[in-house]
Amino acid sequence: MKLETGRLILREWDWGDVGDLIEGLGDLRVSSWLAFVPHPYAEKEAKAWIGLCLRNARSPRNRRSYDFAIALKSERKVIGGVRLHRIDAARGTAGGGIWLNARYQAKGYGREALGEKIRFAFEELGLRLLEDGFFKGNRAARKLQKRFGYETAGLKKNAFRCLADGKLTDEWRTALHRAAWRNPCAGPRAGGGEPLEVRPAFVVKAEDADPTASTLAFRSAKTMHGGKSFAAGDRIYIFASENEGGSGLVAGGIVTSAETVAKRRGVARQTPRVSIALRRTGVARRPLGRTELRSFRDGKDGRPETELNFKFYRQATNKIAGISGEAAAFLDTFLHCTEAGRIRRPGSPNP
Length: 351
Prior knowledge:
Elements: E1 2-4, E2 8-12, H1 18-25, H2 28-31, H3 43-57, E3 66-72, E4 77-88, E5 93-95, E6 98-100, H4 109-124, E7 129-135, H5 139-148, E8 151-161, E9 168-177, E10 201-206, E11 215-224, E12 235-240, E13 248-260, E14 273-284, H6 290-293, H7 304-313, E15 319-323, H8 325-332, E16 335-337
Parallel strand pairs: 5-7, 10-12, 11-15
Antiparallel strand pairs: 1-2, 2-3, 3-4, 4-5, 4-6, 7-9, 8-9, 10-15, 11-14, 12-13, 13-14, 14-16
Helix pairs in contact: 1-3, 7-8
């Protein structure tokens, strides 16, 4: 089993990873935030862990856990690990965590690896809920989980005695429902321990939707289905109109400015129009357009595909429309994050 992102490969552990595993988990800056990692962490412990992972990998049917080594492509080095375990296919649930070598933290690798694990869990395994947690005081873990839409489910007092430093530690329990899944491409999240702020989300279908541009502007665009209620910071998903030779979904972004266009005098009935500017945060990694959505016509099934088909393709008009949180979460699964306004293409140098 192997998963891949722009800079990382998530793969099964192998015996050649012993040295990198010891380097990463042998650091108290890492192991003091983990429950069951002793200190010092030596070759014996590393080999025991890899052996366990290899045995699990040899039993692919009804697999209850995936333990991935996080390998950095540019250095061909394992820089951490990410886990999906206690998989219950009947309930659609699983748990698991992530750790990174201290030298590779605060570089976006954790976000990249965790995002791919979540995508794998929801899209490929068909799970509906991820149940995780982090030690009280671990602000980096809290911030990372918040980016993806995890919500705190409560504080468990004296949850673990950390093997690395012997301290009795409280744990914040967290949960991520598939319907609340948020891709980091969708922008900032609310802080604190309260439920996440869910900002409005919109879709725009236009002729001049260039996915290579870091910023885009749409002037005097027609709005329908609540599409006129814009504000800076709202999420937006961009479709290139197939009527003008476009390919459907091409990018995602964040609105940077929005202005209502004044109505023309003397005209009784007018479609509301807005002018908006946005910053691109992601590009489509697989197709989604009229061809993929046309079969979703049952208005009572509650599916995001049906909502998008109704709002976009029932009429050929280019427009901006408001969409539900479920539709936004669905569209997030089609996006690949971009950084510093650049698209990462296969084979291009890593930043």
